[in-house]
Amino acid sequence: MRTLFGRDWRVALPFIAPLVTIMGGLILWPFLNAVWISFTTRNIRRQDVFVGLQNYERLFTDVDYLGAVQNTIVFTVVSVALKLVVGMTIALLLHSRIPYRTILTGLMLLPWIVPEVVTAMAWRSIYDPIFGGLNPILMDLGIIDRRVGWLSEPQLALPSVIAVNIWKGIPFFTLLILAGLKAIDRELYEAAEVDGADNYQRFRNITLPGLKYVLAVTLLLSTISTFNSFGIVYLMTGGGPGGATRLYSILAYEKAIVGLRFGPGAAVAFSMAPVLAIFIAVLARFMLRDQGAVRADEGRMDRALDLAGKGLTALLDLILWPFGALGGRMGAGLGRAGGGLGGGRGTRCGA
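The chain above was modelled as a monomer; its predicted structure follows.
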């Protein structure tokens, strides 16, 4: 105990014991109970019978489960990638000298703060093939020539809910990246400009290195959250049509709550636990590194996580460099336009 908690552990124990007890009762016990349930099934007498790994073994031959895992991967990868791209672009624009950027930053919060139920109901009405507003707009623009059932056609249902998830998650990326941009020293940009660096060079050599930690943590948090998405998708489609939008979380709900098959439902949920554990371990590694808690005698797991982190930052280098030039040029153009309008108003007032 002394080695683990320090020499004053006897003094600290009465203070931390209530918190540890509450956490054990609210988190640890339900978790362990759910793990036990995943190894059981109910017989006709409604008694839980231990079946070992049978619930997990059946998943590999369950067509619904395999389809749900595929949908979850597509949903997560596409959503996170597009949220990163759009969020980075908007953050660069808001960080540049554009007029009314304070108001625009506040407006960016709206999709994020709207409750999921309101978001789902609003977008269901927008996607409605008869009364929704999306079809008439696209038909007037000549993009479509008929009314489309965005949530009722299997080929369009998953992209439609992905679009809503992206819309709701963009502010999270934008605000965190914008905070990271504001933390970068302006003198670095001024020195680079004096040296003749263009927008891309400043982004590649100053902005991106300064944002690597923020981007890594933001990506990992968003990936974990998106991977476990349930509310918006279930409220919009219920996992349909024909399982086209059924995520693994929805399948677990259908088995455990709707079908009252708690064992198989818990097995579906815990089958994704190793994937989430990897994301959480990488996230913890980044946070510990930032606090200087990396030890010299790191083991194989630490080296593997370091390698994953380096691969992630290399991927960010590859994906994000075009958006520095785009954001810088668009921001400069909008800034000149705003300055011209401001100058024109000043001249008229002076006259």
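Confidence is low (pLDDT under 50) at residues 291-297, 341-351.
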